[in-house]
Backbone:
């Protein structure tokens, strides 16, 4: 069973809530949607800029992309991968979002050029703090940002969401919420590890499509709160909005108090 509900059309474009039966089907559907979106864009232009997320459903979706029969229809030389956030841990640490994304998908794409994978620098890779890593990432983003634009208009930006309503590493009440610029260092994250690097709201909201992916009953109150438009200070996911389209891709359990 899948339910599509057009909940809002505004200056920010359409918002669509799509409910899938469970987390497994959700991950498969995210993979199919992502591949279809990349193929659609590649039929008219290149490159395609995709922002990856950490978290259970996000990584499961990447594994589903790797196993998808349509995977090899994509011209991976024309796809750039970015991250919405990173855990500030040494390179290769199994808890890094980068490590998990490489294992789930990127290592399975031999055609993907190494320079198309834009990682947030780890401690020891020329940076000593989340702020330094964030600054380096802002520089990297600016290399791909057209003259006159403030931010790169990512084609698809994936976000997982925590039960507290956090997206990327923008946590309720955390100083990172108010950060200016494209990126921010994050300290005192309630979700381990405490030090992280994140895109800011303004960078996220420059994406053409933002897809929030969430599964499980523990996420239901935050889904409902974000869809109701509660303040981002208490429900950061309410600020997950794309310029063209915002998709909420959830399973039945996560949607239970919002439908
Ligand atoms: O680095 C991270 O931890 C994330 O990017 C974070 O924002 C994550 O996406 C959510 O916490 C959802 O994670 P789950 O799907 O595992 O609940």
Residues:
């Amino acid at each position: 069973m899948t339910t599509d509900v057009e909940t809002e059309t505004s200056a920010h474009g359409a918002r669509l809530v799509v409910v899938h039966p469970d987390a497994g089907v959700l991950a498969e559907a995210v993979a199919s949607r992502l591949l279809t979106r990349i193929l659609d864009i590649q039929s008219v232009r290149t490159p395609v800029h995709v922002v990856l997320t950490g978290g259970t459903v996000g990584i499961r979706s990447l594994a589903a992309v790797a196993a998808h029969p349509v995977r090899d229809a994509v011209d991976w030389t024309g796809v750039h991968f970015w991250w919405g956030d990173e855990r500030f841990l040494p390179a290769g640490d199994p808890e890094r979002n980068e490590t998990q994304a490489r294992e789930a998908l990127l290592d399975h794409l031999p055609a993907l050029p190494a320079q198309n994978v834009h990682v947030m620098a780890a401690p020891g890779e020329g940076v000593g703090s989340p702020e330094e890593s964030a600054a380096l990432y802002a520089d990297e983003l600016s290399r791909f940002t057209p003259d006159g634009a403030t931010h790169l208009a990512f084609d698809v930006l994936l976000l997982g969401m925590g039960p507290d309503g956090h997206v990327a590493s923008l946590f309720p009440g955390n100083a990172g919420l108010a950060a200016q610029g494209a990126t921010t260092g994050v300290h005192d994250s309630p979700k381990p590890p405490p030090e992280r690097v994140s895109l800011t709201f303004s960078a996220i909201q420059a994406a053409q499509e933002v897809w929030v992916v969430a599964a499980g009953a523990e996420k239901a109150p935050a889904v409902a709160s974000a869809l109701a438009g509660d303040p981002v200070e208490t429900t950061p996911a309410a600020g997950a909005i794309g310029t063209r389209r915002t998709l909420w891709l959830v399973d039945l359990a996560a949607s239970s108090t919002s439908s």
